[in-house]
């Protein structure tokens, strides 16, 4: 098991008994996954933050904030960034019944 997976499992164990905290941790996992995907997509295309910024018509610091989870940016900004670096987003949503949550 990778160190990343071990950390995530440990975190899940820590918050398993607190529904509110578990919800916040899940939100943070989504933010982290989006940021990691953006950075990987940008780097896979050989683009710098400055080049992405130029394509989006924003500053390099704006792209940095997007990649570093600045909460002032909205979902549209994230979608625009993926589109303009030539990456696709695949978003899924699901619900769990009470038995699956345990």
Describe the 3D structure.
By secondary structure, the protein is mostly helical. The protein has one domain: Orthogonal Bundle (434 Repressor (Amino-terminal Domain)). 68% of the residues lie in helices and 0% in strands. It has helices at 3-15, 19-44, 49-56, 60-67, 75-84, 98-101. It is elongated.
Structure in a nutshell:
The chain has 102 residues and is mainly α.
Key features of this structure:
102 residues, mainly alpha, 434 Repressor (Amino-terminal Domain)
Number of domains: 1
CATH fold name? 434 Repressor (Amino-terminal Domain)
Number of helices: 6
CATH architecture label: Orthogonal Bundle
User: Which structural class is indicated by helix and strand composition?
Assistant: mainly alpha
CATH secondary-structure class: Mainly Alpha
Cα-based radius of gyration, to the nearest Å = 16 Å
Tell me the strand percentage band.
under 5%
Low-confidence stretches: none
Largest sheet: none
Distance between the termini: 22 Å
Coarse morphology = elongated
SSE series? HHHHHH
- The average pLDDT is 80
Helix content: 55-70%
Fourth-level CATH superfamily: lambda repressor-like DNA-binding domains
**How many β strands by DSSP?**
0
């Amino acid at each position: 098991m990778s160190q990343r997976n071990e950390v995530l499992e440990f975190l899940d164990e820590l918050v398993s008994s607190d529904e509110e905290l578990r919800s916040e941790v899940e939100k943070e996992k989504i933010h982290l996954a989006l940021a990691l995907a953006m950075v990987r997509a940008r780097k896979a295309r050989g683009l710098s933050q400055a080049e992405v910024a130029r394509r989006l018509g924003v500053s390099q610091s704006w792209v940095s904030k997007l990649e570093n989870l600045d909460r002032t940016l909205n979902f549209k900004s994230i979608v625009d960034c993926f589109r303009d670096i030539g990456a696709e987003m695949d978003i899924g949503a699901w619900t769990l019944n009470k038995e699956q949550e345990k």
